[in-house]
């Protein structure tokens, strides 16, 4: 049973990571500009209890070379998930925006995603 659940979470996690990478690509950011990318196999996982529902949540974290968090992916007991990954770069084609990161969320086969943009500081 655990093996089946692990395989399902892995399949879902890989799809969520693919969505994060799609959002990065949509922005026009070349993967080579980022020191780290959101690959499922590179996340460090731990289990925690959701304080609201009391259900188990599997939390994965991506870290940079110094050990600082640059993203997370969470699988909740109700089947939903949420992921975010830091970009922290000026928008490559629109100077009005700064790209804070990308997010993905959903349940089952439904995965939504978007960029987290901040208004760029004026000069």
Q: Any overview of this molecule?
A:
This protein has 123 residues and is an alpha+beta fold. The chain has one domain. It is 21% helix and 44% strand. It has one helix and six strands. It has one helix at 2-27; strands at 44-49, 56-63, 69-76, 80-90, 97-107, 110-119. The chain has a six-stranded antiparallel beta sheet with strand order 1-2-3-4-5-6, covered by helices on one side. β4 and β5 (97-107) form a beta hairpin. The termini are far apart. 20% of the residues are buried. The mean pLDDT is 92.
Task: Provide a quick synopsis of the model.
With 123 residues, the chain is of the alpha+beta class. It is built from one helix and six strands, in the order H-E-E-E-E-E-E.
User: N- to C-terminal separation?
Assistant: 57 Å
Shape: elongated
Question: How many beta-strand runs?
Answer: 6
Listing every helix as H and every strand as E from the N terminus to the C terminus, the arrangement reads: HEEEEEE
Q: How much of the sequence is in beta strands? A: 35-45%
Q: Ranges with pLDDT <50 over ≥5 residues? A: none
Helix content: 10-25%
Number of individual domains: 1
Largest sheet: 6 strands, antiparallel
Average of the residue pLDDT scores: 92
Counting DSSP H or I runs of 4 or more residues, the number of helices is 1
